[in-house]
Amino acid sequence: MRVINHPILEQIPDNKKITLYVDGKIIEALEGDTIASALLAYGKKICRYTSKRHAPRGVFCAIGRCSDCLMTVDGIPNIRTCMTPVKNGMQIKTQQGNGIWEGLNEKR
Ligand code: FES
């Protein structure tokens, strides 16, 4: 769900569509979105699960202060998705616990 006509900002521009990969699914986002806003528009509310109780967490403050929106983005864990703009082709994963750096254990 997206706001098309905002009472203060008025008409929201129709930005270019881009593609994201979220937990293996392809979703559309708009240039100018943050990762979190694109996921909320898609209907995905859970960004991560806590390390001890495996409790779901999603966007809470939306200003980069709480860390509830952390996700693994392009193999890098603990990215604050409410503060990170989307880029075409991003690989985004729901983070489990503290997350892991992907690709570090690959043999060279
Ligand atoms: S929602 Fe709080 S840091 Fe992103």
What order do the helices and strands come in, and which of them pair?
Layout: E1 5-6, E2 10-11, E3 17-22, E4 25-30, H1 35-42, E5 48-49, E6 56-57, E7 70-73, E8 76-80, E9 91-93, E10 95-96
The structure holds FE2/S2 (inorganic) cluster (FES).
The site of FE2/S2 (inorganic) cluster has 12 residues, from loops.
Describe the structure.
The protein is mostly beta strands and 108 residues long. The chain has a single domain, classed as 2Fe-2S iron-sulphur cluster binding domain, sarcosine oxidase, alpha subunit, N-terminal domain (Ubiquitin-like (UB roll), Roll). 7% of the residues lie in helices and 31% in strands. The protein is built from 1 helix and 10 strands, in the order E-E-E-E-H-E-E-E-E-E-E. The chain has one helix spanning 35-42, and strands at residues 5-6, 10-11, 17-22, 25-30, 48-49, 56-57, 70-73, 76-80, 91-93, 95-96. The strands form 3 sheets. A 5-stranded mixed β-sheet has the order 4-3-9-7-8, covered by helices on one side. The longest helix has 8 residues, at 35-42. The termini are far apart. It binds FE2/S2 (inorganic) cluster.
Estimated radius of gyration: 15 Å
CATH topology: Ubiquitin-like (UB roll)
Bound molecules: FE2/S2 (inorganic) cluster
Helical coverage, percent range: under 10%
Distance between the termini: 44 Å
| Low-pLDDT segments | none
CATH architecture: Roll
Please give the CATH class.
Alpha Beta
State the main characteristics.
108 residues, mainly beta, Ubiquitin-like (UB roll), five-stranded mixed beta sheet, three-stranded mixed beta sheet, 1 helix, 10 strands, binds FE2/S2 (inorganic) cluster
